[in-house]
Design brief:
Helices cover 37% and strands 21% of the residues. It is of the alpha/beta class. The strands form 3 sheets. Strands 2-5-1-8-9-10 form a 6-stranded parallel sheet, sandwiched between helices. The two termini are 18 Å apart.
Length: 238
C-alpha cells in the first residue's frame, strides 16, 4: 500500500517551509508513525560541502533522525541559488520530472507516511514546461501551504491556493510562520481570519518564532508547546 503523506509548499521562498516541515516530521515520528522525508530538488548547495545549516534536505533528515541516503531524500541538488530550471541551465543539465516521481515512489515504499517539501512557491519552474504545482499533482499528495505575516500575504496566499485548487490538489490547510520575534500589528493579526474567509481554507495555526533554531530544537517538550499553536492533528487521518 502506498505511503500517505503531505506536500509542504509555500507562498514564496524563505517563508519557513523547512522549519515547519522539520517540526511536523519530528511530531509524526514522536507519535509513532513510520515517517520519511523528501526534498526532491535543492538549489544553492555545494554537493561537496553541505550540512544541516545550509541544506534543507539534511536539516529535515536530522530533525527526524532519518538514516536514508541523501541521494534518496534529495535526488536533484544544484549549486546555483536559483530556480531549478535556471540552475540547471547554468550547469548545462537537463532535469527529468519522471526521475523525481520515480525516486519518490521508491522512497515512500519504506514508510507509512511521507512529508515532501517543495522549493519556493507553486509556480517555480523545474523545467520549461513543468512547475512545482505539476509535481505536487503527479505525486498525488494533498498540500499544506506555509505563509508569513507581511503586507501582500493575502495576494500571495490566495494565488497559491487558487493554483492548487485549479490543479485539483487537495489543500489540508494554511500555516502562518512567525519569522521574527517582533509584535504583530493590527493588519497582520487580521490576516489569518481573512485568508479563511476569502478562500474557505482552514488556517491550522501559527508556527511561533524559535530563537537559536537547529535540528535539536524539536524536543518532546517543544513539540507539546507547538501542538498548542498549530493543529498538527489535522494533518493526519483521524
Amino acid at each position: 500500500m502506498p505511503a500517505q503523506g503531505l506536500f509542504i509548499t509555500g507562498t514564496d521562498t524563505g517563508v519557513g517551509k523547512t522549519v515547519v516541515t522539520g517540526a511536523i516530521v519530528a511530531w509524526l515520528r514522536h507519535q509513532g508513525l513510520k515517517t520519511g522525508v523528501m526534498k526532491p530538488l535543492e538549489t544553492g548547495v555545494d554537493r561537496e560541502c553541505s550540512s544541516a545549516a545550509n541544506s534543507d534536505a539534511l536539516f529535515l533528515m536530522e530533525c527526524g533522525d532519518i538514516q536514508d541516503d541523501l541521494s534518496e531524500v534529495c535526488p536533484i541538488r544544484l549549486k546555483p541559488a536559483a530556480s531549478p530550471y535556471q540552475a540547471a541551465l547554468i550547469e548545462n543539465r537537463t532535469l527529468e520530472p519522471e526521475t523525481i516521481v520515480s525516486a519518490y515512489r521508491n522512497l515512500s515504499d519504506k514508510y507509512d507516511w511521507m512529508l515532501v517539501e517543495g522549493i519556493g512557491g507553486v509556480h517555480v519552474p523545474i523545467t520549461r514546461d513543468y512547475r512545482v504545482v505539476d509535481l505536487i499533482r503527479d505525486l498525488g499528495l494533498p498540500a499544506v501551504v506555509v505563509t508569513r505575516y507581511h503586507l501582500g500575504t493575502l495576494n500571495h496566499t490566495l494565488m497559491t491556493l487558487d493554483a492548487l485548487k485549479q490543479n485539483n490538489i487537495s489543500v489540508q490547510g494554511v500555516i502562518f510562520n512567525r519569522g521574527d520575534p517582533g509584535e504583530l500589528g493590527e493588519v497582520e493579526q487580521e490576516q489569518p481570519r481573512l485568508i479563511e474567509a476569502l478562500s474557505g481554507t482552514e488556517v491550522l495555526g501559527e508556527f511561533p518564532y524559535i530563537d537559536s533554531l537547529d535540528t535539536r530544537s524539536f524536543t518532546p517538550e517543544r513539540l507539546q508547546q507547538l501542538e498548542s499553536c498549530v493543529r498538527f492533528s489535522r494533518l493526519t487521518p483521524a
